[in-house]
Every structure is written in structure tokens, then in C-alpha cells.
Write a structure and sequence with these properties.
315 residues; six-stranded mixed beta sheet; Rossmann fold; single chain; globular; 11 helices; 10 strands; 2 domains; alpha/beta
Amino acid sequence: MTAVTSTAPEPTATNPEVVYDVKDVTLRFGGVTSLNKVSLQMHRGEILAVIGPNGAGKTSLFNSLTGVYTPQEGSIMLAARKGDELTSILHDPRFYGARKSTATHLINRHGVARTFQNIRLFPALTALENIKVGVETRQKSGPVSAMLGMPWQRREERESTERAYELLRFVGLTARANDLAGALAYGEQRRLEIARALGTEPGVILLDEPAAGTNPAEKRELAELIRRINVEDNVSVLLIEHDMKLVMSIAHRLVVLNFGEKIAEGKPADIQRNPAVIAAYLGTTNDEPEAATTAQPEPNTTDLDSGPAAEGDES
């Protein structure tokens, strides 16, 4: 496996706080098991990447961590922002109410933001307005205050505009503030979606294939942006990505899934040499290691997106 050197700085904490503590999570859709007893810990201040072939269960894991799916077994503990206590979010009545949206909304309020494989902007709103949608989720004024023009509502409106401009500068889109989101280039839309997520003031952000569809220059800009989010904004980053060159350059640790099970976890250099990971991407079996070595070409670690797929998850 061709080596890709990691340039990600290590988190400085000697006893890192836990952001997510996931234990034995199992998610089933009818007769299909999308996640099978998956366990992992994410530490505050780190960039943790979840990788694996298509159908490995990566997006199912993200959806379970953000309340979109409710796993049938296991536990998920969350302490998104610094100083928070670990709190169970799985089957907790405070998070899972009568409506599915209750869980996702409250988990976001507890400091978790995310982006999606398919960009989910408001194309008819400007870039500035898209970010204000995220910023205003943290504000207290409601529609009645807005209609009455109350002083505190006007103050929050000014503050949300100022914060939105700050985030536009942070992601390099100041010049596009008044352009419709649907008119932006693809890479710009990716950055705008990240800026909107940051507007909710998260302690942890989940990025689902943020480099999908971007060109090499946009990937380099994205890698630098993720580092800045992690270091300058002190936001922990949980990342799904198929571009191994990007992953290896920014991630502190990797978790590898295959057919809904965790098969490896460790630093980038260790994962690159892991036989189970190589076999998962090449589609080989442990029963034929020598044949796999001679019959299969060496994988290109800059794009390991060709492994076996399973039902029940798009990635």
C-alpha cells in the first residue's frame, strides 16, 4: 500500500476529554444489519476520520450519532462542548420524542453540527442568508418579537449579520455574500455549507464526504479549512471521506468500517499497513493472503473507493 504521510498535528491534551463514547451500536433495517456492535471514542480537539468501502456503514453511523436513525442496541454518550458532562442520547426521552426531528434538533442544540454527502443549501437565498439560518438557531427571539420589532430582536439581527460575515471571511466567501447559493461554484457551496454548520456554534462537527465532487485545488483548500476549524475554532471534527490523500494529511486517528463492523482503528500510518484494511479495499479474504498479494495490484491510497458494497447504506 503506497504510503501517504500524515501532516496532522497531534492534539495537545495528555488526558483528552471524550466527545462521543459509542459502545456496541447495532442498527438494523429489516433483515439487513447496517451497523454491528460498533464501538469508538472521539476525543476533544481531534480530527477523527471514519473510512471504509462503499456500503461499509459510515453514513449509518453518522445518522445514528445525530439522531436521524435510532439503533436497536448499544449506547451513545455525548459531551459536545467543553465542560459538558457525558450524556446518553440513545433512547433518552429528552432527545427522542414523538417526532423524529426532535432528536436531531436537540442534539444540534447540544453542540453537534453536520454536513451531508449531497449539499443541502437554500439555493434561492444568498450566501449570507444561508449562514444566518445557522446562526439564528442559537438566538432567542421568535416570530412575535420580529413582527413587533422588539429592541432585543433588532440587536440579535445585527449580531447574526455580523457573525455571518465573520464566517464568510473564515471560509473565504466574503465577495460572494450577496450571491445566490445556487449560483456558487460547487467547491464554494461545500464551504458555505460548512460555514452554515459553524453558525450553530458546535463543539463537534460531522463532515460527510466534504471533498466529494471537488477538484484538486478545492481539496487543498478544504483540507486547510478543516485544520483551521479544528485549531482556530477549537471544534472537534468527525470526518467521512474517500479521498485518502486528504484523510491522511489531516486526521489524527482513523476508524475503518467494513460491512457494518469496525475492523481497525489507529493512527494513519498504522492503518495504511493493516492487512484487514488492505483486504477490505481489495475485496480479498484472509484465507488467501498469498494469492491476494500476487494477483491484486497495489492500491492507490489517494482514492480507495472501490471495495465491496453492502445493502442498507449509501456509504
